[in-house]
Automatic annotation (TrEMBL):
Family label: Belongs to the FAD-dependent oxidoreductase family.
UniProt subcellular location: Mitochondrion
The UniProt record lists the keyword Cytoplasm: no
An example Gene Ontology molecular-function term: 2 iron, 2 sulfur cluster binding
Source organism (scientific name): Pipistrellus kuhlii (Kuhl's pipistrelle)
Keyword vocabulary terms for this entry: 2Fe-2S, Apoptosis, Electron transport, FAD, Flavoprotein, Iron, Iron-sulfur, Metal-binding, Mitochondrion, Oxidoreductase, Transport
One Pfam family it belongs to: Pyr_redox_2
Record protein name field: Apoptosis-inducing factor 3
GO cellular component, as recorded: mitochondrion
Rieske domain span: 1-83
PROSITE patterns listed in its UniProt record: RIESKE (PS51296)
Length: 516
C-alpha cells in the first residue's frame, strides 16, 4: 500500500496479487491513515479501530463507522500507473452508499410501520441504513429515549465538553432524505408480540411487521447512604457529560469505578478539576479486562497526572452540605473531599419493558439471540449491548459484548435477516480507549484468560499484550504498537488460531511484517 499525492488530495494506491486499486486514503470513521493499516484477503483494515474496506469496491465490510471509501479509476500504460479522480471525491474522503428512498411515507403519525427499531444507538442506526442500502423502501421508524438524533456515544466519556451537534452521526437532512423516521424522547412500555404492536409511555400505539430491539443498557447507580444528594452523576447523555465538566472545573472530583468509562472521565477531568480521585474495588484498574501488569502500568500513567487512587474499597456514604455533595466516605473509613462524583460501575440491560412480552430474557436481563440476531419470537430481532449471542470464533460461546463496533455489526446482520438474506454474525470484537492523548486498542474476547504475554516496554507504554487461555491467544491489547491489533484481528477473522508459543518467542515478524 502506498499513499499518493494527486494535486487536490491523496489516494491510497494498493497493489494486491499484481492488480492495482486506488481508494480514499483516510478511514471515514476518525480519519486514520489507511496506509498504516493491514492489507489482507482483498481488504484493508484500519490501524486505529479495525474498520475494514473492500479494495475492489471501497465498500465498508466491518465496523465501526457508517461510510465507505471512494474508489478511483486506475490505468496502467508503459509501466506507469494513472489514477483518475474527481476533485470533490478526493476532498470528501467518504462515500455514503446508495440508498433507497421510502415510497410509503407515513401520513403524519400513522399507527403502523413495516420496520420498528427500538433504540437509536449504533445497532439501530446501522440496521435502518442497511435496510435502505439493500433497497428496502417501506416505512422505517427508529425510536429513542434520547432527545437527540443518533450520536457517537463512546465520545461522551473521552470528550465531556462535546456538544450534541458535534457528536451527531448523521445530520437531520439525512433522515429526511432516506425516509428514516426518528421518534425522540419516545419510551416503549409494552411489546405485544401476538398482535405485533408496541405501546409508548404517552399511550401512542404502533403496529409493526418486523421489530429490532436495541435498547442498550442503563448505568448502575450507587445504593449507599446519601445516594440522592446533588452533583452525583452517571454518564449516559451529552447533557450528563457537559454538566459534569461544568461543575468539576476547579473543584474536587471523585470517580467511582476504574473501568473504561471511569478512567476516561478521570483522564479528561485532570486538566479541568482541582483534584481527581478514583475509587475502585479491585486492586488495579482494568484488572479483569487487561490483567494486573497492564492495569498497573496504566495506573502509574494516571498517578503521574495527579490522579489519586483508593483501591480495594467502595463508597459507604455520600455526605452533603445544603443538599450538595461535600464528601465521599469510603468503607476503609477514609473521607475524600468531593464537589462532584461520577459513577462508572457498570451497566444493566434496559430490557425491563420486555418482561411480560414472551420475548426470551436470561437471568441477568439480556436478550439471547442466534447468529442471525433472531430472538425466540419470529420477526423479532435484537442487537447491541442488551444481547447475548454465539461468538463464532470462540466455539459459539454465548457472550455479551457491549462494544460500539459489535453493535454496528449486529445491526447490519439483523437488517440482512429481516430481508431473508441469511447472514450470520462473525466479526472479531474490536475496541479502543483514549486517555491523556494515548490510545489503547484491543481485539478478541479475553474472558477467562489464564496468562498474559507482554512484548515491548510497559514502563514506556509501548507494548503489546497477548491474552491466552491454554495454548491459544484469545485477545490482544496494545499501546503505541500499531497496526498489531488490526493484524491480529485479521488473523483471527481469517479463521486461523494463534498459538501461545508463536507469541512467546518475541519474534513477531509474522505479525508485524508488511503485506499480508
Amino acid at each position: 500500500m502506498r499513499e499518493v499525492e494527486l494535486g487536490w488530495g491523496k489516494v491510497l494506491l494498493v497493489k494486491d496479487n499484481g492488480e492495482f486499486h486506488a481508494l480514499g486514503h483516510k478511514c471515514p470513521h476518525y480519519g486514520a491513515p489507511l496506509v498504516k493499516g493491514v492489507l489482507s484477503r482483498g481488504r484493508v483494515r484500519c490501524p486505529w479501530h479495525g474498520a475494514c474496506f473492500n479494495i475492489s469496491t471501497g465498500d465498508l465490510e466491518d465496523f465501526p463507522g457508517l461510510d465507505s471509501l471512494h474508489k478511483f479509476q486506475v490505468k496502467i500504460e508503459k509501466e506507469k500507473v494513472y489514477v483518475r479522480a474527481s476533485k470533490q471525491a478526493l476532498q470528501l474522503q467518504r462515500r455514503t452508499k446508495m440508498m433507497a428512498k421510502c415510497i410509503s411515507p407515513s401520513a403524519g403519525h400513522s399507527g403502523s410501520t413495516n420496520v420498528l427499531i427500538v433504540g437509536a444507538g449504533a445497532a439501530g442506526l446501522v440496521c435502518a441504513e442497511t435496510l435502505r442500502q439493500e433497497g428496502f423502501s417501506d416505512r422505517i421508524v427508529l425510536c429513542t429515549l434520547d432527545r437527540h438524533l443518533p450520536y457517537d456515544r463512546p465520545k461522551l466519556s473521552k470528550s465531556l465538553d462535546a456538544q450534541p451537534e458535534q457528536l451527531a452521526l448523521r445530520p437531520k437532512e439525512f433522515f429526511r432524505a432516506y425516509g428514516i423516521e426518528v421518534l425522540t424522547e419516545a419510551q416503549v412500555v409494552t411489546v405485544d408480540v401476538r398482535n405485533k404492536k408496541v405501546v409508548f409511555k404517552d399511550g401512542f400505539k404502533l403496529e409493526y411487521s418486523k421489530l429490532l430491539l436495541a435498547p442498550g443498557s442503563s448505568p448502575k447507580t450507587l445504593s449507599c447512604k446519601g445516594k440522592e444528594v446533588e452533583n452525583v452523576f452517571t454518564i449516559r447523555t451529552p447533557e450528563d457529560a457537559n454538566r459534569v465538566v461544568r461543575l468539576a472545573r476547579g473543584r474536587n472530583t471523585v470517580v467511582v469505578g476504574a473501568g473504561f468509562l471511569g478512567m476516561e472521565v478521570a483522564a479528561y477531568l485532570t486538566e479541568k478539576a482541582h483534584s481527581v480521585s478514583v475509587v475502585e474495588l479491585e486492586e488495579t484498574p482494568f484488572r479483569r479486562f487487561l490483567g494486573e501488569r497492564v492495569g498497573r502500568a496504566l495506573m502509574k500513567m494516571f498517578e503521574n497526572n495527579r490522579v489519586k487512587f483508593y483501591m480495594q474499597t467502595e463508597v459507604s456514604e455520600l455526605r452533603a452540605q445544603e443538599g450538595k455533595l461535600k464528601e465521599v466516605v469510603l468503607k476503609s473509613s477514609k473521607v475524600v473531599r468531593a464537589d462532584v462524583c461520577v459513577v462508572g460501575i457498570g451497566a444493566v440491560p434496559s430490557t425491563g419493558f420486555l418482561r411480560q412480552s414472551g420475548i426470551g430474557l436470561d437471568s441477568r436481563g439480556f436478550i439471547p439471540v442466534n447468529k442471525m440476531m433472531q430472538t425466540n419470537v419470529p420477526g423479532v430481532f435484537a442487537a447491541g449491548d442488551a444481547v447475548t449471542f454465539p461468538l463464532a470464533w470462540r466455539n459459539n460461546r454465548k457472550v455479551n459484548i457491549p462494544h460500539w463496533q459489535m453493535a454496528h455489526a449486529q445491526g447490519r446482520v439483523a437488517a440482512q435477516n429481516m430481508l431473508a438474506q441469511e447472514a450470520e454474525i462473525c466479526t472479531v470484537p474490536y475496541l479502543w480507549t483514549a486517555m491523556f492523548g494515548k490510545s489503547l486498542r484491543y481485539a478478541g474476547y479475553g474472558e477467562g484468560f489464564d496468562d498474559v504475554i507482554i512484548q515491548g516496554d510497559l514502563e514506556e507504554l509501548k507494548f503489546v499484550a497477548f491474552y491466552t487461555k491454554g495454548d491459544e491467544v484469545i485477545a490482544v491489547a496494545s499501546m503505541n504498537y500499531d497496526p498489531i491489533v488490526s493484524k491480529v484481528a485479521e488473523v483471527l477473522a481469517s479463521g486461523r488460531a494463534i498459538r501461545k508459543r508463536e507469541v512467546e518467542t518475541g519474534d513477531m515478524s509474522w505479525l508485524t511484517g508488511k503485506g499480508s
